[in-house]
């Protein structure tokens, strides 16, 4: 079943985070992921608000998790650490 990778982000270092975004996109695509939402308009109804929200769809939970643990994504993530506060989760869809 398809899965969604959902990130809620507050960027604290825009230059470093831009490097993360450059590298993360291709790593996500390599693992079958495609972006559904990237920083668009949102309405916060509950919980901690983060100004940037990203949703990517993957073929499966396993594909999304493999992407996260891949060397390519970990290299990208090195630029996000210290440049952002984030929560990231993977959830299987009901499709």
UniProtKB/TrEMBL annotation:
SUPFAM superfamilies with a match to the protein in the record: Dimeric alpha+beta barrel
Coiled coil: none
Domain DUF1330 as annotated: residue spans: 2-93
InterPro entries: Dimeric_a/b-barrel, DUF1330
UniProt cross-references to Pfam families, sorted A to Z: DUF1330
Protein name per the record: Uncharacterized protein (DUF1330 family)
Organism: Rhodovulum adriaticum (Rhodopseudomonas adriatica)
């Amino acid at each position: 079943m398809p899965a969604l990778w959902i990130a809620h982000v507050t960027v604290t270092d825009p230059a470093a985070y831009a490097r993360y975004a450059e590298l993360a996109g291709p790593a996500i695509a390599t693992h079958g992921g495609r972006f559904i939402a990237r920083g668009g308009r949102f309405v916060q109804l509950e919980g901690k608000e983060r100004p940037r929200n990203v949703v990517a769809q993957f073929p499966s939970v396993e594909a999304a998790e493999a992407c996260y643990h891949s060397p390519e994504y970990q290299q990208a993530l090195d630029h996000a650490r210290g440049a952002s506060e984030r929560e990231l989760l993977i959830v299987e869809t009901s499709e």
